[in-house]
Each structure stands twice: as C-alpha cells, then as structure tokens.
Specification:
Blueprint (H helix, E strand, L loop, with lengths): L1 H12 L6 H20 L32 H14 L4 H11 L14 H35 L7 H13 L10 H15 L6 H13 L4 H13 L3 H27 L16 H11 L8 H17 L3 H19 L13 H4 L6 H13 L2
Helix pairs in contact: 2-12, 2-15, 3-4, 3-5, 5-6, 5-7, 7-8, 8-10, 9-10, 9-13, 11-12, 11-13, 12-13, 12-15
Length: 372
C-alpha cells in the first residue's frame, strides 16, 4: 500500500530531470513569449467584460420591457428565450430579433445554436442560476477527486480549486448566464475533471452538452479524441470521433434551418478571421478575467505564465491542459474580432490552473539549465 501511495510522487520527481539544453531553450522560449506579449498588448479593445457581437446603432429603440442597463447581446438572448418559452419557433424568433437590432444573420453561424434558448425557456432564470451553481459544485468535486490520483496534483488540490474559481469568476455570474460561452466553459472544465483513461463516457456527455450550446467547444472535443488515439485508447477515440460526426450533422441541420428563414439580402457578419496575433490572444484572456484590473503590459505577460506551469506538470492532465490552453490561444490569434473577446470564456475556468505548478517548473528548469 505504501508503495502505491508513493508512486505518484515518484512520477512527479522525474519532472526534475530536464535535459539541460532543452531546459535552456524552454526558459528562453517562455521569456521571449512573455516579452513579446508585453510589447504587443492591446489597449484598443472593449474595456469591460460585457459581450458585444455587433453593436446596434445608438438610435435603435429598445423593444418594450427590455432592461436598458443590460448589454445588447444579453438582451437579445433574454428576449429570444422569452419568446421560445411562449411557444414561438426558435429560428424565426432568433432571426427576427437579430434583424430588429441590426445584428447580422448571415452566415448561419451568426445565429446561435438553439440549445441554451430552450434550456432557459424550460428552467426559467432562477432555474438556470440553480443549474449553474450545481454545475460549478460538480466541477470542483470532479477536480478534487481527479487530483487525488493525478501526479503532482494531490498536494496542490486546494490551490488548483481556488484557481478554477478565479478563472470562472468573471463569466460565471447570474447576469452573464445568458452567454453561451459561459456554459460551454464550465462544461469543458467539468468534462476535464471527470475524465479518466478508461472512464470517458461521462466526460464525453459533458463535452457533448458544451458542444450543443456553443460550437467553440469543438477544439476541446477534437483534442480529447486525438489524445485518446495517441495513447492507444481506441474505444474512447471512436467515442470522441462519433461525437464530432454527430455534431457535424446537427450543425448542418442548424445551418439549413437558418437558411430557411434568411435571404441573401440579410446583413452579413464581417469575417471572423481577423489575424490579430499574440495581442489578440492576450487581450481575450485579460478582458475575460480578473487580469483586466492590472496595467495592460503586466496583464498580457501574466496571460502566458500559466502555460509554464501546465508545461511543467508531468501528467496526463498537465499535457491536456497545456495543449488545450495553447490551442485556444492560437485560435484567438487567428479568429475573432476585438469585440469577440468573450470567446475566451470557453477556456477561462481552467486557464489559471497552471499557476499552481509554475514555481516547481521554473525551479526544475533552472536547476537543469545550470548543469549545462
């Protein structure tokens, strides 16, 4: 029994033996990335965490009964859910409401998937708040249990759970529960906490719900399927692949339904491929997290630091977290305009977890580099 208890620590101790040359290159690479992040930090982005997909003209009159203090996107999602609850067709309502606010409805992806609107209609706002609280608790419990057996995670469980709360804190508030990215983000975190090498059905179901709410969860699903295949877990890889296929069919149906109630004369969204570079990546994370309270150059640097810890956490969860955060970071560099910064809420709940391992990672890298 004692041998089994020591095994995770023995795996973690092997983390200290970096190849000296690789340690130097890693330190130099992260240092360069942090410096470039500070130099390219963006200050010309929306200053507050209120999502605006496409701003409506200031002269547009508000529909009766809407709260003028609430952001335009949030009012849109509220109104769509209200009308769906009244028995109206989601697609007709969504397109009509977006047209009324001068929001684009072309291409079809400019119209959100209907899942969250139906959930809000069924559960009502108070029920959604309760559901959010339950999901948050389940996520923390799932991570607490998984970290017990994860190499290097057991002794840092409290810090990691605190970092999860901090990461989810900005988006996961009652006033933002109309945002699709908030729900996708907490479900991805739950899926990751539930995941085990051969216990993957529940994580897959959580990811499927995230994907049904927001298509931005697709990179997570693709990553999990790829890692399962690379690790030789064939059944799991097939499961993730089947989810991708099912989502592709559902998305095609969604686009067809949007096409039935739109025309070429409807306003089109500007391209989402903005190629904003590293500044776009760091801006998304900063504005969607408590880092927005810091000076821009410092906040941009701190966006990169958790990646050091993820890279140094020699475990399956560490490797998955590193690839997930870095992958979404690259996506933010390529896709998304400045007013799409809230896309980062999809990955925010887990982003800062890497901070728990930064001291150990830097110490190990430095010790290895000194032996070069």
């Amino acid at each position: 029994m004692d041998r089994l208890r020591r095994r995770p620590r023995q795996r973690w101790d092997r983390f200290a033996y970096w190849a000296p040359g690789a340690a130097i290159l890693t330190l130099m690479g992260f240092a360069l990335l942090i410096v470039v992040a500070a130099l390219t930090q963006r200050t010309d982005v929306p200053p507050a965490p209120a999502p605006i997909e496409t701003a409506a003209p200031a002269t547009t009159a508000l529909p009766p009964g809407e709260d003028p203090a609430r952001d335009t996107d949030l009012r849109l999602y509220d109104r769509i859910a209200e009308r769906v609850d009244a028995g109206e067709s989601y697609y007709a309502v969504a397109v009509e409401e977006q047209r009324a606010r001068n929001f684009p409805v072309n291409p079809g992806l400019a119209v959100r998937l209907p899942t969250l609107a139906y959930m809000t209609a069924w559960f009502e706002p108070w029920g959604m708040a309760a559901l959010g609280a339950v999901l948050a608790v389940l996520t923390l419990v799932a991570w607490w249990v998984r970290l017990h057996d994860e190499s290097g995670g057991n002794e840092r469980r409290i810090y990691i759970l605190l970092l999860l709360v901090i990461g989810a804190g900005v988006g996961f508030k009652p006033q933002y529960l109309a945002l699709h990215e908030v729900w996708a983000g907490i479900l991805i975190a739950l899926s990751l906490g539930l995941h085990r090498p051969r216990l993957w059905l529940l994580p897959l179901l959580a990811a499927a719900l995230a994907l049904a709410i927001r298509e931005h969860a697709l990179p997570y699903v693709l990553l999990m399927g790829t890692l399962a295949w690379a690790r030789g877990h064939t059944k799991e890889a097939i499961g993730w692949g089947a989810l991708v296929l099912a989502f592709g069919i559902a998305l095609a149906a969604h686009l067809a339904m949007v096409a039935d109630v739109t025309s070429a004369a409807d306003p089109a969204s500007p391209s989402w491929f903005a190629w904003r570079g590293l500044g776009g990546w760091t801006a998304n994370i900063v504005i969607s997290s408590p880092l927005q309270l810091l000076p821009g150059w410092l906040a941009a640097m701190l966006v990169i630091v958790p990646l050091i810890g993820w890279a140094g956490w020699r475990s399956d969860l560490g490797a998955t977290g590193l690839l997930l955060c870095a992958g979404y970071g690259v996506m933010f560099m390529i896709a998304g305009r400045d007013n799409n910064f809230y896309w980062a809420l999809v990955v925010m709940p887990i982003w800062f977890v890497g901070l728990a391992f930064v001291p150990r990672a830097l110490t190990s890298l430095w010790n290895s580099a000194r032996n070069y």
